[in-house]
């Protein structure tokens, strides 16, 4: 048994070993190496304390000194996490409280799953595998290190991590681990929203089909606890939703998030929900999409996503996954004006994914082409694109007021119908006349 170990990895280990500190490569890199997958992401566990690590290397970054983690830059400038051996001293279900340890064995004992509790000595070329993680990897089994009930109770995030790793490597969860996991699912409410979110984002951003982990979320009861809006979907809609998520690229996990949340408007309206007419200025495609926006925003706010992601994802959700019927140029421009041309690319990919899952639906390609051509022609889509502005109204002798915006919006309607009319000579007389009328009634 020999792992292909890069020179830079040996260099870091040698530097620490020559100073007298036992040092191992651990975690994902060893696991992925055994699976025959290459990884650039080598992490280390060492006897050296963080300040000793920092003294030995020229370039280091204090990543989490309290947790014992120092970032070490190798000679190619790639950063590696070097973490002092640790053991758990106290746990509260939300995270483990750790202290430094003297032996790699202690460090491996606190790790979550057998496939993650592997260590490789880059110089002696020895694999340390006290829980037969290699056997589990070969058999395709995910199981906890130690008693599953206890390991989940120490840190309930391990429930979601189990689902993610099982999905990622297509592993069966060992029956004992599964039983404890299902029993632990109700305790997921105790986790911080950020940790719950990061798990979902990793599932959506992974190259393995997210449907595998997400199906396990549902089967284990985790969905019911952390994503009740998704739990409410019936089986058929849930299956279809997962298929659409899979059909999107892992490079845009937020678009996958939109595909996942887009159907949540479907179950019956709930009495306690806010009116979907008023969704932060977003005009949704239809009442179901409007309800989806309200519920998707509730999920995303609960997960504490940034305002940018919230706006982006809810904008995609607002249109649903199926393309609108837009037969004329004017209809297409009005639609683009409403949703914002910057969201177009996301919609096109959502429609394509939806169509791939259900080829009996209308092919979105012709509409996609027409919309792309429309955008490429650069038509005026917002008041700021008009050939006349509020300054023209002031030059006409008017005092600024809210009616300025209304008059300009009216002109935008004209040029959305016919972009050729967006010329000063064409618009000034109309502006003059409408402004006189509006000022008269203002
Ligand atoms: P990835 O390729 O996703 O980074 P990874 O195995 O490196 O996979 P990380 O989340 O980076 O996963 O964690 C690194 C290692 O730390 C894991 O392999 C595992 O041994 C350990 N670990 C991480 N989080 C926990 C946890 N909550 N409980 C126990 N051990 C954990
Ligand atoms: Mg990692």
Automatic annotation (TrEMBL):
Does this UniProt record's set of keywords contain Plastid?
no
In this chain the CCA-adding enzyme C-terminal domain maps to: 385-428
Which InterPro entries does the UniProt entry name for this protein? Bact_CCA-adding_enz_type3_sf, CCA-adding_enz_C, NT_sf, PolA_pol_head_dom, PolyA_RNA-bd
UniProt domain tRNA nucleotidyltransferase/poly(A) polymerase RNA and SrmB- binding: residue ranges: 171-232
Cofactor(s) the protein needs: Mg(2+)
The UniProt entry, under SUPFAM superfamilies, shows:
Nucleotidyltransferase, Poly A polymerase C-terminal region-like
Q: Which intervals hold domain Poly A polymerase head?
A: 24-143
> What UniProt keywords apply to this chain's record, in alphabetical order?
Magnesium, Metal-binding, Nucleotide-binding, Nucleotidyltransferase, RNA-binding, Transferase, tRNA processing
Q: Which family does it belong to?
A: Belongs to the tRNA nucleotidyltransferase/poly(A) polymerase family.
Name listed for the protein in its UniProt record? CCA tRNA nucleotidyltransferase
């Amino acid at each position: 048994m020999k792992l292909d170990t890069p020179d830079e990895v040996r260099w870091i280990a040698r530097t620490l070993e020559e100073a007298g500190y036992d040092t191992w490569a651990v975690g994902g890199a060893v696991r992925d190496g055994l699976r025959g997958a290459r990884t650039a992401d080598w992490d280390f566990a060492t006897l050296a304390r963080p300040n000793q690590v920092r003294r030995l290397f020229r370039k280091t970054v204090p990543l989490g000194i309290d947790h014992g983690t120092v970032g070490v830059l190798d000679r190619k400038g790639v950063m590696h996490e070097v973490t002092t051996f640790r053991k758990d001293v106290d746990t509260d279900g939300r995270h483990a409280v750790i202290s430094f340890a003297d032996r790699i064995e202690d460090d491996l004992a606190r790790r979550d799953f057998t496939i993650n509790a592997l260590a490789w000595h880059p110089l002696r070329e020895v694999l340390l595998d006290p829980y037969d993680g290699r056997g589990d990897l070969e058999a395709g089994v995910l199981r906890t290190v130690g008693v599953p009930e206890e390991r989940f109770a120490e840190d309930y995030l391990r429930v979601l991590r189990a689902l993610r790793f099982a999905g990622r490597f297509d592993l069966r969860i060992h029956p004992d681990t599964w039983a404890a996991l299902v029993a632990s699912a109700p305790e997921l409410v105790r986790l911080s929203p950020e940790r719950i979110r990061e798990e979902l984002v990793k599932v959506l951003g992974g190259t393995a089909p997210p449907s595998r982990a997400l199906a396990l979320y549902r089967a284990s009861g985790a969905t019911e606890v952390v994503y009740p809006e998704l739990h409410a979907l019936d089986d058929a809609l849930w299956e279809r939703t997962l298929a659409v998520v899979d059909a999107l690229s892992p490079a845009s996990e937020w678009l996958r998030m939109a595909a996942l949340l887009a159907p949540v408007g479907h179950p019956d309206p709930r009495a306690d929900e806010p009116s979907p007419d008023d969704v932060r200025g977003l005009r949704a495609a239809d009442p179901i999409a409007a309800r989806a926006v309200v519920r998707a925003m509730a999920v995303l706010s609960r997960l504490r996503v940034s305002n940018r992601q919230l706006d982006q994802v809810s904008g995609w959700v607002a249109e649903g996954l199926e393309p609108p019927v837009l037969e004329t140029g004017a209809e297409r421009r009005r639609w683009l004006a409403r949703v914002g041309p910057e969201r177009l690319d996301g919609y096109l990919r959502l429609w394509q994914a939806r169509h791939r899952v259900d080829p009996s639906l209308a092919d979105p390609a012709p509409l996609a082409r027409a919309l792309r051509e429309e955008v490429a022609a650069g038509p005026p889509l917002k008041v700021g694109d008009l050939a006349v502005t509020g300054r023209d109204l002031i030059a006409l002798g008017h005092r600024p007021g809210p009616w300025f915006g209304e008059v300009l919006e009216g002109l935008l309607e004209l040029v959305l119908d016919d972009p050729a009319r967006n010329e000063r000579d064409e618009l000034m007389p109309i502006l003059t006349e409408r402004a006189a009328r509006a000022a008269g009634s203002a």
